[in-house]
Design a protein that fits this description.
Elements (H helix, E strand, L loop, with lengths): L3 E6 L5 H18 L5 H8 L4 E11 L2 E15 L2 E12 L8 H16 L5 E7 L2 H8 L5 E2 L8 H11 L6 E4 L2 E5 L7 H8 L4 H9 L7 E8 L2 H13 L5
Parallel strand pairs: 4-5
Antiparallel strand pairs: 1-2, 2-3, 3-4, 5-9, 6-9, 7-8, 8-9
């Protein structure tokens, strides 16, 4: 299946263009997340701390079938400047098994690293599906929280900083923070299939977020240095998994 990708920086558009494209983005987002609100998406896309808002849209025969909105957020902490990548991906159900979220995210981050090779970048994402968590955790050993490993102090501090953005955050274990999210609309059959544990990563997710059916997700973090990005890209290319 050959999908056509279009990429643009929402932040670089004029006010009129932003208004036009936001409406298109919201219309598609509602197809995947019908229970989310206009205000929620607007707060995400118009995050005042975001210095870039990369929008990647996927078309199949001129039909929009998915989009990935990737924010690069500038944060000052302990007299340091750091950058945090956050994203919101939405795909129609028949396109959700193609790993498009992680592939497009890694590609966008690699491009950002090439432009700014010396900046410190973190990837923070809230995941509310065990198989999506497994997809990320099984491609990089530096993706936390994870089974059998203690989160490094530096990771924990950044995760706590981002967790403070969510008033309803819950700490369920050391380094494991969960909060309410919106799940894609799914059939009963799809929901039942999602519950089937596939590996140790799925089991870890289910242990800490058994209420993901109600939209609760785990906040995850990964340091995006050159080594981690190259290893993750290679593991994806070879379909190789790590414990």
């Amino acid at each position: 299946m050959n999908l056509i990708e279009t990429v643009f920086d929402f932040k670089a558009l004029s006010v009129q263009q932003q208004s036009y494209f936001f409406e298109k983005i919201y219309q598609f987002d509602q197809k995947v997340f019908p229970n989310s609100s206009l205000e929620e998406l607007k707060a995400f896309v118009y995050d005042p701390d975001a210095i870039t808002v990369t929008v990647i849209q996927f078309h199949d025969r001129e039909q929009l079938v998915g989009q990935n909105i990737i924010l690069l957020i500038l944060i000052h902490y302990n007299e340091q400047t750091m950058y945090v990548v956050n994203l919101r991906a939405s795909f129609l159900s028949e396109y959700q098994k193609q790993n498009l979220t992680i592939l497009s995210t890694v590609k966008a981050i690699l491009n950002q690293r090439l432009k700014n090779p010396f900046i410190l970048v973190w990837f923070v994402i809230s995941i509310n599906q065990p198989k999506i968590y497994s997809l990320f955790a099984s491609r990089s050993k530096n993706f936390y929280p994870r089974v059998g490993k203690i989160m490094p102090k530096e990771y924990h501090e950044v995760l706590q900083l981002m967790a403070a953005r969510y008033p309803e955050i819950q700490k369920r274990s050391e380094g494991v923070y969960v909060h309410e999210t919106h799940s894609p609309a799914r059939s009963f059959e799809q929901l039942t299939h999602l519950r089937i544990p596939q590996d140790v990563h799925c089991n870890f997710f289910l242990q800490h977020a058994p209420d993901y059916f109600d939209g609760w997700g785990i906040m995850c973090i990964c340091k995006l240095d050159g080594k981690t990005l190259s290893e993750t890209a290679l593991n994806l290319a070879l379909n190789r998994k790590v414990d």
